[in-house]
Design goal:
The C terminus is likely disordered. The longest helix has 24 residues. This protein is mainly alpha-helical. The strands form two sheets. A three-stranded antiparallel sheet has the order 1-2-3, with no helix packed on it. A two-stranded antiparallel sheet has the order 4-5. The structure holds zinc ion (ZN) (2 copies).
Length: about 220
């Protein structure tokens, strides 16, 4: 019985829907291979295991036969080998020249090979920043970046970024009602609120703007104070 030699991504024999991950040295479900860190390593790892197999076969050709029925997840799902970059990630990298918090975040992200590239999920991006021990300002920057990115796509951006960051700085990056900051817990999301709502004649004058967390902002109704 020839030894079974698994290439990175090979289906486990007798266990369909489970594939060998040479990066983790374990058998994993399909979703495991779409993990961002894996996508970037997958091609190199596949090439390395192929080279390894070639060497073993050269030494003892019959012993290391790879069954012809071996199915590779990368053959079944060729897309897994292509790193995808989210529109948000591409947008963020273009902000690196800015002279504000988003510019700082963009610069950090550009030099962070592990920053998740294929997601626009706030929870996942935030989790990554926390793992990197990013400070409260980076978390504020992330929320502002996501908000601005989405606003730029719906062309509704009532308060200019420069002014938003002025207000955030002035208010110490904290909700002016409950005092929470972005790093206190994941659910805290800081927003710039009009004290007098725009529909009631409120302006973008700094006097009329303050930082609230989403919870306090939501509890306040439509901009009345
Ligand atoms: Zn793995
Ligand atoms: Zn609050």
């Amino acid at each position: 019985m020839p030894a079974r030699y698994y290439l990175h991504g090979d289906e486990a024999e007798g266990q369909s829907s489970t594939y060998f991950c040479a990066i983790c040295d374990s058998f994993e479900a399909e979703s495991h291979f779409s993990d961002d860190a894996h996508i970037r390593k997958a091609k190199a790892r596949l090439d390395a295991t192929k080279r390894g197999l070639k060497k073993l076969r050269a030494a003892s050709p019959r012993k290391y036969a790879r069954p012809s029925s071996a199915r590779s997840i990368f053959k079944l799902k060729p897309k897994l080998l292509k790193p995808t970059t989210s529109r948000f990630h591409r947008w963020l990298l273009r902000q690196a020249d800015r002279d504000d918090l988003i510019g700082d975040l963009a610069t950090d992200v550009a030099s962070d090979p592990l920053f998740p590239r294929n997601t626009e999920s706030r929870a996942k991006l935030r989790e990554h920043l926390r793992r990197r021990a990013a400070d409260s300002l980076a978390l504020v920057a992330l929320d502002e970046a996501l908000r601005e990115f989405r606003a730029s796509r719906s062309s509704r951006d009532a308060i200019p970024p420069k002014l938003r960051f002025e207000i955030l700085r002035r208010d110490g990056y904290r909700c002016q009602l409950c005092g929470l900051s972005a790093s206190d817990r994941a659910s805290v999301r800081l927003e710039i609120d009009h004290k007098v709502a725009v529909v009631k004649g409120g302006t973008n004058d700094p006097e009329n703007l303050w930082v609230l967390c989403r919870k306090c902002n939501g509890g306040k109704g439509a901009g009345d104070l």
